[in-house]
Amino acid sequence: MISPRSLGIHVRRATIKDGNFLYRLRNDREVRQQFLNGDAVAYADHIRWLTATIASPRRVLLVGSDAAGRVFGQLRFDRVNPRWIDVSISIARSHRGRGFAVPFLQKGIAALAKQPIPSPKPFLRAQIKRTNPASIHTFERAGFMRYAGTAMYIFLRRTIKIS
Known about the structure:
There is one protein chain. By secondary structure, the chain is an alpha+beta fold. Helices cover 31% and strands 30% of the residues. It contains six helices and seven strands, in the order H-E-H-H-H-E-E-E-H-E-H-E-E. It starts with a helix and ends with a strand.
């Protein structure tokens, strides 16, 4: 398995300065195809969402950068309820298919585990379109297990160790 160290992946909380990168990533055609709502988003709406997301105690938005310092992806954790944290990941076109997704996800989960998350220990949950086998494979390689599905989606989960 590729390790985050071998790729030089660095994970940090997103800031408003990441707005342009995150806006371009959000509106990337291939990324939008995988969203529940695949509509393009206006820049002003995106910045309002980003500002609220950064301020929310129920969300953790991380960005990943490579060894050269290029930001390549976003990883979002949404506390849905006391038992579930929804996880979503998006990788920039420049880094897709190059082995960044699994170690980025793993490193992001490790960063999340260091956050003050109230008990009970929640499950991490991913809802992925069946037409997105690359993401399904990414989450499975990161320790997620399939537990349910619909005609359109696969649901995967894993536990998180809170430190």
